[in-house]
Design a protein that fits this description.
Layout (H helix, E strand, L loop, with lengths): L1 H31 L9 H9 L6 H5 L5 H21 L8 E5 L5 H8 L4 E6 L2 H10 L6 E5 L10 E6 L9 H13 L1 E11 L1 E2 L3 E5 L5 E7 H10 L2 E7 L13 E7 L3
Parallel strand pairs: 1-2, 1-4, 2-3, 4-5, 6-8
Antiparallel strand pairs: 5-10, 7-8, 9-10
The protein binds S-adenosylmethionine.
């Protein structure tokens, strides 16, 4: 009887293991295929996105969303970032924060309120840089620069924050380059806090009206591979749960450090 139970348990374990291997194999195989097809032309896409719109958090997320939706989205990420920074005992008054894909500048205000010593906002689009530069002209600690993080170098930073940006870098070569640029510009004890949806598989989550890919979700395995290749390590992923009543854009926070795993 005991022998039979042991055999059953072994068979069950082998079954689970085989399923797991099967799933990860399929995942790897899918990641290897370039199923992305055409991708949006980032520069044009984002400049068009902001042309003629009011620069607000609502518009940055999605046209037509309401204030409460936006508040829920940002509150979840703010809480996660505050927890991570506190756990790491980050000394903000001595930190240069670089906000990549700054949009309407939500994270500029967040880090200014927290007393960061210097803040630089980068965005591929012209309009946010123009409007935010005017808005913060009185504050010499805050600067802005138009920059494609998948192409241009990023200023040296203690903290790099990128909320809702990396999944919009759809092309894999550009994505790898962006991660390399980020890790290269981190101070040795610096940290990058990038949000994304970290699932089991990588796939194109959203396409533009003409069918070109504009958002790509990536698996944790995929992220880790790209980060390691860029000379960094994925320290951890902090899950930000979206409440059932308000499904906000996926925003798990990837905590990335320079150096090998
Ligand atoms: C969804 S918005 C997020 C804005 C902001 N981080 C926030 O959380 O409110 C994405 C922003 O990333 C910018 N962006 C997209 N690709 C970029 C790139 N390759 N380099 C720099 N900025 C980029 C877009 O122009 C846009 O402002």
């Amino acid at each position: 009887m005991i022998k039979k139970m042991r055999l059953q348990r072994l068979a069950h374990w082998l079954y689970i293991r085989a399923r797991w291997l099967y799933i990860t194999r399929i995942g790897r195989w899918l990641e290897g295929l370039n199923l992305t097809g055409e991708t949006v032309e980032a520069n044009k896409y984002w400049n068009d996105w902001y042309s003629g719109t009011n620069l607000t958090d609502n518009e940055t997320i999605e046209t037509g969303v309401d204030n409460l939706y936006t508040r829920v989205h940002y509150a979840g990420i703010e809480e996660a970032l505050a927890q991570i920074l506190r756990e790491r005992k980050v000394n903000l008054p001595e930190s240069h924060v670089v906000d990549i894909g700054t949009g309407a500048g939500h994270w500029i205000q967040f880090f200014d309120d927290l007393g960061a010593s210097r803040i630089t906002g980068l965005d591929i689009a012209k309009e946010p840089i123009k409007q935010l530069s005017e808005q913060h002209a009185h504050n010499s600690r805050i600067q802005f620069k138009q920059c494609d993080v998948a192409v241009n170098e990023i200023p040296d930073a203690d903290i790099i924050v990128g909320v809702g940006v990396m999944f919009h870098i759809v092309d894999e070569k550009r994505f790898q380059q962006a991660v390399e640029n980020i890790i290269k510009s981190l101070e040795p004890d610096g940290v990058a806090l990038l949000t994304g949806s970290v699932g089991w598989f990588s796939y194109v989550a959203i396409r533009d009206d003409d069918g070109s890919a504009m958002k790509r979700r990536r698996s944790k395995r995929h992220w880790r591979r790209v980060i390691n290749k860029a000379g960094g390590k994925l320290h951890k992923v902090r899950r930000v749960k979206s409440p059932k009543s308000v499904v906000t854009p996926a925003s798990n926070v990837l905590v990335i450090q320079p150096g090998r795993d």
